[in-house]
Amino acid sequence: xxxxxxxxxxxxxxxxxxxxxxxxxxxxxxxxxxxxxxxxxxxxxxxxxxxxxxxxxxxxxxxxxxxxxxxxxxxxxxxxxxxxxxxxxxxxxxxxxxxxxxxxxxxxxxxxxxxxxxxxxxxxxxxxxxxxxxxxxxxxxxxxxxxxxxxxxxxxx
Length: 157
Fold this sequence. Notes:
The protein is α+β, with helices and mostly antiparallel strands. The chain is built from four helices and six strands; from the N terminus they run H-H-E-E-E-E-H-E-E-H. It folds into two domains: 8-67; 72-149, Roll (PH-domain like). A three-stranded antiparallel beta sheet has the order 1-2-3. Strands 4-5-6 form a three-stranded antiparallel beta sheet. It starts with 7 loop residues before the first helix and ends in an 8-residue tail after the last helix.
């Protein structure tokens, strides 16, 4: 089996959210500098440092996040690999799944993506940034697999 990667819509959404986060960071940093009473070169240096961090966050973070995010769906497990600085691998056995949810926020809807939450008794694994159709198909596929493991009953929603 080969890991799947995300679509370009996911990359655009990651970029937009990183830019929004960078702007919030920049405004907060600038407000702190103004309120903090820094003067002269130190004030300018801190403001430039904040701007550099915001630009790096908006440009580098979404590219790394997009490249590192991948997932694998097999008849017996769901695997998610994600992270920028720290990469994590989540494995959820299909026979442990209790609930499957498909959800979209306002930005998700604007970019045509959704997230699938796979709930077990102990945790929740979330497949983010999936195309809407793919998310629905994945939820139906997992529901069918869980139903088969339960002896034909497919009551997972």
